[in-house]
Every structure is written in C-alpha cells, then in structure tokens.
Design a protein that fits this description.
Length: 85
C-alpha cells in the first residue's frame, strides 16, 4: 500500500535490543509490529522487512523480551540480546 513503511531490520537496530524490554519499547526501536502471533503454543511479535522477519518472544519475567530470532532466506539466526539491565 502507498505510504506503508518497511521497518528497519538492519544490524544497528538489533544492537539496541536488550533482554527486559517490553513489546512497546521494542516497537519504538523497530516500528509497529504486525500483531501478536502464536507458533507452537508460544506468542511472538513479528516485524517484517525486505528479505527478513524478526520474531521476538516476550515470555520473560513480567512479559519482557526473552529471545529474538531473525529469519532470513534459508536461515534462522538467534540474536544475542546481551544481559538484562
């Protein structure tokens, strides 16, 4: 659609992701997510960019970010989120 903006899924954006962030805090970094989704019984949030998708799982304490996976053609990369602050 005209006016739709593709989220920035570049490494510099991912570098800012840290354990303990809420979906709203991650949304500020990456832009709006599609919607909560369920995969094998686990809820995740998805951001779609050109040639990649970020899946973030907020099943940490209090619904905070616990892990994230970057899906690129032919590969899934589990992201190193660093330590909780």
């Amino acid at each position: 659609m005209a006016g739709d903006k593709v989220p920035d899924l570049s490494p510099r954006k991912f570098r800012r992701l840290r354990v303990g962030m809420t979906p709203a805090q991650v949304e500020v970094i990456l832009g709006p997510y599609l919607r909560p989704n369920v995969y094998q019984g686990r809820t995740f949030f998805a951001w779609i960019g050109e040639g990649a998708m970020l899946r973030a799982f907020f099943d940490g304490p209090g619904g905070t970010l616990a892990r994230a996976v970057l899906d690129v053609p032919d590969e899934q990369r589990v992201l190193d989120l660093g330590e909780a602050r």
